[in-house]
Structures are given as C-alpha cells and as structure tokens.
Amino acid sequence: MTSFIELLKTRRSIRRFKAQAVESEKIEWLKRALLSSPTGKHANDWEFVFVQNKDMLAKLSQTKEHGGEFVARAPLAVVIASDTAKDDNTWVEDCSIAAFNLQLAAESMGLSSCWMQCRGRKRNDGSLCEDNVRALLNLPDNLGVLCIVAIGYKDEERKPFDWEKLQYEKIHEEKF
Ligand SMILES: Cc1cc2nc3c(=O)[nH]c(=O)nc-3n(C[C@H](O)[C@H](O)[C@H](O)COP(=O)(O)O)c2cc1C
C-alpha cells in the first residue's frame, strides 16, 4: 500500500486512460470512499452515479463546451451530486470532499483520475452543464451537480510534485 504522503506527491490529474476496465472489487472500494466522506451536520445529502456505458460517457463529456473531453476516454466516471434545497447546507463542500476522497482512493489502488467541473459551467448554446447532466441521467431537479470524476488506468505520465518547489509563499504564520 502506497503511503498517504507518497500519494499526495505522485497524484496528478490524468486525462488519458487505457481501455482496461476498472475491476469490480476496486469499484466497491471507491463506493466505500465516497460513502465514508464527512459532511456538514452529517447531512449525507449527496448522490453518486457510476457510469461505465461508453455512449453515456461520451455524452457526459459534451455537457459543457470545453475541458470535459477526457471523460469520453475513461472506462468509468462518477457523477457527484447533492440536494441543494436545504437551508444552510454545505453541498459544495460535501461534494468536494467526497470527490477528492474518491480521487485519492482511486490513486491508492493504482488508478488515476481527473475532475471535470460541472457547477457553473455552460455549453456555447447557453445550456448549463448541470441541466445537461440532469437530463442525461434522470436526476431530479433538487440535485445540483458539482462535478464528474473520470477514473481509469493511466495512459500518460505526469511528473510528481517536487517538495522543494511548492509555493511556500502561500503559507503564512500567525498573521497574513
Ligand atoms: C475544482 C476543480 C475543477 C476542475 N475542473 C477541471 C475540468 O473541468 N477539466 C479538466 O481538465 N481539469 C479540471 N480540474 C483539474 C485541474 O486542472 C488540475 O487539478 C490542476 O491543473 C492541477 O493539476 P494536478 O491535478 O495534476 O495537480 C479541476 C480541478 C479542480 C480541483
């Protein structure tokens, strides 16, 4: 098992994947990673849609104008949505944590991933990515769609982080 710090160092967004499917046992662990993610007030209002159908992956990749093409090249994508209707909710935070837990869990099992932002994104025809995803997957209107995480075995290499070259100027001690 790769150490957590090593995962942080080597995890990079991967947008090219091999055709190899993700094994069902690994998919079960990905589900556990999502469902054990913390949420504000323990609301657990999220919903997750696992998609492996090639046609649907291609359609999802086109739900915004740019930056989602890699979803069509992945063997698996997880759509991360949540009820947005409740007052005082933390749906964006809850979904973000779940999405990144998913990415790290994938990484820990030798898989790679990339986040496709949906919330706030559009197609050139003016349609919202969230509406387009809702229509494709029959999601109810009360569910906001934060993102789609594409997962698979990588077919490109990305450099790991160099600890010496991080932006340490972003870190402040005691006061800004
Ligand atoms: C909130 C968020 C939204 C992102 N949306 C997209 C996206 O729509 N398309 C894409 O190709 N990458 C997307 N990414 C991946 C980022 O481009 C990537 O994380 C960033 O360039 C840093 O690279 P790294 O993940 O390899 O460290 C997103 C990442 C985050 C955290």
What would you say this structure looks like, in words?
The protein is built from 5 helices and 4 strands. It has a 4-stranded antiparallel sheet, with helices on both faces. The protein has a single domain (10-170), classed as NADH Oxidase, CATH 3.40.109.10. It is an alpha+beta fold. The model has no long low-confidence stretch (mean pLDDT 97). Helix 2 packs antiparallel against helix 4. The protein has helices at residues 4-10, 24-35, 54-61, 91-108, 129-137, and strands spanning 46-51, 76-83, 112-117, 143-152. It is 31% helix and 17% strand. The protein is globular, with a radius of gyration of 17 Å. Flavin mononucleotide is lined by residues 12-13, 15, 67, 114-117, 158.
Order of strands, widest sheet: 1-2-4-3
Number of helices: 5
Q: What small molecules does the structure contain?
A: flavin mononucleotide
Number of domains: 1
* Structural class designation: alpha+beta
The description of the largest β-sheet is:
4 strands, antiparallel
Query: Beta fraction of the residues?
Result: 15-25%
Extract low-pLDDT stretches.
none
CATH domain fold name: NADH Oxidase
CATH class: Alpha Beta
The CATH superfamily is identified as NADH Oxidase
Q: What number is the mean pLDDT? A: 97
- Categorize the overall geometry: globular
Q: Kindly report the oligomeric state of this protein.
A: single chain
Instruction: Give the SSE string.
Output: HHEHEHEHE
Rg over alpha carbons: 17 Å
The CA-CA distance between the termini, in Å, is 38 Å
